[in-house]
């Protein structure tokens, strides 16, 4: 799967009429600011997705959560930091969004290891598509690893 396709999904969510209308409805009916209204909309979607039987579809709530986070960051005027990687690195993170990955100099990335995720998570999908080893769902890798630690990422056992 093309990583840019996932970014297209996030754009579609941000433009989704029901998402936008629900957020506006929250502002009007609950007299809350835009940031709180977006949070309420994402929480409502979370409730809906939690009731889904299909694991893959239930996991797609991460798309809506990420889109909500980006909207909140834009409303707060936050700029995304771009990190210049001088040498080849292994990326350790709680999670990686497709937008995060798209901004990386992939030729400098040796692998990914994340606290959350599964075989259908964006990090796993992107890693497979660009043939970079990844281990996801480690729960506390961000607490266990420090900058400049020597680590090995063996993503060969995944499916």
Percentage of residues in DSSP E strands: 5-15%
Compressed to H and E, one letter per element, the order equals HHHHHEHEHEH
Please count the helical segments: 8
**Class by alpha and beta content:** mainly alpha
Largest sheet: 3 strands, parallel
Distance between the termini: 15 Å
Number of strands: 3
Q: So what's the overall shape?
A: elongated
- Biggest sheet strand order reads 1-2-3
Radius of gyration: 17 Å
Average of pLDDT: 81
Which parts are unreliable, with pLDDT below 50 for 5 consecutive residues or more? none
Question: Can you give the helix content as a percent range?
Answer: 40-55%
Give a quick precis of the structure.
This protein is mainly α and 159 residues long. 51% of the residues lie in helices and 8% in strands.
Report on the structure:
This protein has 159 residues and is mainly alpha-helical. 51% of the residues lie in helices and 8% in strands. It is elongated. It starts with a helix and ends in a 15-residue tail after the last helix. The longest helix has 17 residues, at 34-50. Helix 1 packs across helix 5 (61-75), helix 2 packs across helix 3 (34-50) and helix 3 (34-50) runs antiparallel to helix 5. Strand 1, helix 6 and strand 2 form a beta-alpha-beta unit. The protein contains 8 helices and 3 strands.
What labels would you give this structure?
51% helix, mainly alpha, elongated, 159 residues
């Amino acid at each position: 799967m093309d990583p840019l396709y996932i970014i297209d999904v996030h754009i579609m969510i941000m433009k989704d009429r029901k998402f936008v209308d629900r957020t506006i409805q929250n502002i009007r009916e609950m007299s809350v600011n835009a940031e709180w209204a977006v949070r309420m909309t994402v929480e409502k979607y979370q409730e809906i997705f939690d009731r889904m039987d299909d694991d893959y579809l239930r996991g797609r709530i991460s798309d809506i959560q990420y889109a909500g986070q980006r909207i909140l960051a834009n409303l707060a005027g936050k700029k995304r930091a771009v990190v210049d990687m001088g040498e080849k690195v292994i990326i350790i993170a709680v999670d990686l969004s497709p937008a995060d990955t798209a901004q990386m100099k992939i030729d400098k990335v040796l692998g990914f290891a994340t606290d959350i995720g599964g075989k259908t998570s964006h990090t796993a999908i992107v890693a497979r598509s660009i043939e970079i080893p990844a281990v996801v769902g480690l729960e506390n890798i961000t607490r266990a690893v420090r900058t400049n630690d020597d680590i090995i990422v063996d993503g060969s056992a995944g499916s």
